[in-house]
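Ticket opened by: R.M.
Priority: normal
Category: complex prediction / small molecule

The reporter submitted a protein together with BES and asked that the result be attached to this ticket for the collaborator who will pick it up next week. Submitted input follows.
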Amino acid sequence: MRLLSYLILAVTLITELTSCKPVKKEKEEAKETMMKFEDKHTYAKPQEAVITHLDWTANVDFETKIITATAVYNIKTAESASKIIFDTKDSLNIIAVRVDGKVAKYEIGATDEFLGAPLTVELAKEAKQVEIDYKTNPTAAAVQWLSPQQTANKTTPFLFTQSQAILARSWFPIQDGPGIRFTYEAEVTVPKGMIALMSAENPTEKNETGIYSFSMKQPVPAYLMALTIGDVDYRKLGAHTGIYAESTLMGKAAYEFAEMEDMLVAAEKLYGKYQWEVYDMIILPPSFPFGGMENPRLTFATPTIIAGDRSLTALVAHELAHSWSGNLVTNATWDDFWLNEGFTVYFERRIMESLYGKNYAEMLAQLGYQDLLETVDDYMENNQPEDTHLKLNLDGRNPDDGMSDIAYEKGYFFLRLVENTVGREKFDVFLKDYFQGNAFKVMTTEAFIIHLKANLLDSATYTSIGADQWIYGEGLPDNLPTPNSNKFELVNAEIEAWKNGTIAKKLETTDWSSHEWLHFIRTLPSGLSFDKMKELDTTFRFTKSGNTEVLSAWFQHTIKNNYVPANQVMKDFLVSVGRRKFLTPTYTALKESGKLSMAKEIYKEARPNYHSVSQQTMDELLGF
Ligand code: BES
Ligand code: ZN
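Result attached by the on-call engineer:
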């Protein structure tokens, strides 16, 4: 008899129930709850037919911006299965479909704005393999094709994919839900002088043939399948870590991320063995829409975290932490996104604490706290209180809408509250077991709650900390932990002194890290005169800062206070950097301070440099 993994779980459960060994009630309950989830963002019906392995052979043409590929899937089917459904998007051009080697009937259904279109393939009884020949569309949302001018070396084109949340389907037909895992192998042909890399076992050197082979032996969901192609070199940093970067960036990158191996060691010490063998990172061109993306074995990162002083490496800790929270234990649906990101922020700060101490981690938490308060206020003002729930309801919406500080920071502070409640020692044991016990599985919010109650919090404690209110309620409960760092109090004192007449030059700022500077800029009063802005800028050289976090925070003031000397730098920044975290507040500030036409003018020039996810957000923001 042939069974789906879901059915296997059910059978295991029944076997356990009927055997004489005592089974914990919570365990049964948790398993049942874990099986029950419906992912509204995939057309796939994995209970009927599900993929288990992908063999992907692809040819990448930079002239036409088309990937021509064959995807061969091993599948598992329920006995009654008569079809298998894949997700597709952006007119993925299906050329032929075969089932177990024979030409098969298929149908492409109606297109939904966010979900794309289902590809339904008719299955013969006991079908084992589906083979799909297809071509991508040059506008495939996940893929960004870059000209040499958009890279650091300026000599060779570049390509990268960004599949999370539901864009994988734009570059391969796939059952695109975080709850569906598969192993994969790939062979990718690229133009001479380039190397292809994936979220898999990777080559470290270019070869003459332009053909590269990949293997991902651990099952991963589609959103973690990634491809990047360019002229990059590899440098080993430690026993399990290394960096890919364009040659002109390699020196700086290797310096900036020299502590990657230490982070990995610290992470393993906290929550158990790293399960993916190798942890590498690639520095992508600045149009990459995110800070980082946790593609297994190969984090994709923006070059805007290269500050020259290792001050923005918390992002590396974050993506590394996803190797446990997210990549091992995966949110079942995008409504459970906080399980990926909230846990990861918690883990990230613990890694940073073990490397740089409590004061350092506490500054990060405080900056996160500030972001959180602002985000909650924004949602409340915009009449979207449901979007402040940890457990979201993204039915009928773009799952990208769930990517806010709620999942990250409200999630973090909830876990911090749990830690405070039971003590760190107990919490660490709990987390380690959680990652180990649920490795390569999915997790729903409901299953997590059961797990939490069964293993850490008794019902009374669970109720007394208002956990349900945190998870299913709006806003921020009264018992929100407040981070405190005396470091920021010192910064506040300097701001007070400046407000009271001490000149900027006399402020005590020696040894400030970029976090203190960021707090300083964020805390500056609004409505500063040109002279005051100029005093700050001449003294602290904010407009010339090489730290993109500092720079983007400074733009808030330069825009709102009409500090014209920063305009050119801001424009150059917006044209070259595609990281949405910086674009959104900057364009918003322009829009809200009566400079919409300037914003649109800059955007017109910048838009072709952005990846589709940044384009989509800015189009909406600026009414393009
Ligand atoms: N997985 C996310 C990026 C993401 C989330 C992409 C949802 C698409 C949809 C990644 O781990 C992340 O959180 N990146 C942050 C880094 C930060 C919190 C340190 C980013 O890009 O800003
Ligand atoms: Zn993340």
